[in-house]
Structure formats: C-alpha cells, structure tokens
Amino acid sequence: xxxxxxxxxxxxxxxxxxxxxxxxxxxxxxxxxxxxxxxxxxxxxxxxxxxxxxxxxxxxxxxxxxxxxxxxxxxxxxxxxxxxxxxxxxxxxxxxxxxxxxxxxxxxxxxxxxxxxxxxxxxxxxxxxxxxxxxxxxxxxxxxxxxxxxxxxxxxxxxxxxxxxxxxxxxxxxxxxxxxxxxxxxxxxxxxxxxxxxxxxxxxxxxxxxxx
Length: 212
Hints:
Shape: elongated
Structural class: alpha/beta
Number of strands: 6
CATH architecture of the largest domain: Alpha-Beta Complex
Number of helices: 7
Low-confidence stretches: 1-14
Strand content: 5-15%
CATH class of the largest domain: Alpha Beta
Order of helices and strands: HEHEHEEHHHEEH
Helix content: 40-55%
Mean pLDDT: 83
C-alpha cells in the first residue's frame, strides 16, 4: 500500500499527514547512496513469524546469499521491506527475560530495556537489531543496513516499485538425536509388547471361560 499524502486524515485512528510525511522521508533516507539497478524489492510479512527465523532469512537476502553470484566482498543484496513488525512472535519467555543494554558513557549509567518495552516503544528496532547482529561487521554492514526498510504496520511508501512478496521456507523438523531415537524405539516396542500381552491374556481368559 502507498501513503496518500494529499488526503486529509480526520478519521480517528489514522496518522496525521505530518506523521506520514515523516515516515515517508525516513523510509527514503539513504536510498540515493544505493545503486538500485538490477535489485529486487522483497517484501517480508512479519505477522505471526518467529523473530529469529525471520531475521535469518532477511540477513540472507540482504547479503545476496540467495543468489548464485554471491561474493563476500561485493554488495549484491536486494532491498528488503518488512511490514507488520508489531505482530512478530517470540518463543519462550523472551518478552520478559530478554534485555537490550547500552551505556551512556557516564559512570553508573548502564541502561537496559526489556523486549516487551522495546516492542511497545518501537517494534521496528527489534527486527533491525536482530538482523544487524546476524550480519558480519565489516565495511558493507552500513550499506546493507540502508537496504533494510521496516514498518510497524502493513503500509509502506514503495508501492510504485516492483515489489515481490517473500515466501518463508517451511519449517524443518530437527533430526532426533541417536539416544532419543533409541529411547523412542524402546518405548514403542514396550507399548507393542504390552498390547500383545493384553490381547493374549484376554484370549486365554476367553478360552478358559468357553471350556467351563
């Protein structure tokens, strides 16, 4: 969807034109320093996605690792647009147990903020931090950061671009460890033996009753 900056937003719940202009300008900031020739515009829908799995896919695309022409020292990644950042999901108790910490430089000024508070304050920074911490820390990191555009809602100002929805790969089940596999096989055999013994006991009981 594209922001309609000319239409007045008098309805309740809608952003004002000044807010839309600010988001539009922030989204377009830094694009002049990127060579957009030949790049694809990939759209990631974060709604219902696990943060780690989503960030790993974004980091792969923004580095260009999904292309056969990938080279570590070249910047061939595509533009990544992330929508619905406020609806991203987390596993475990990360909302209350995960903290972002930083220091102001003054003595005793170690600041921290929980994931829940950061999600309420700015959900786009949650995904941005997760993706940036998966990228190698070299000279290409800033250029890859400029190719990442994250929005809290479902609207973005790049509707005039040839955007392509990104399909998340199916979640693969982790292969069971040998010890756990052997334990599962033993449990299955034990249950089968129990069922067989119960059937044999019932059969013998029926024969005894018939003989009487």
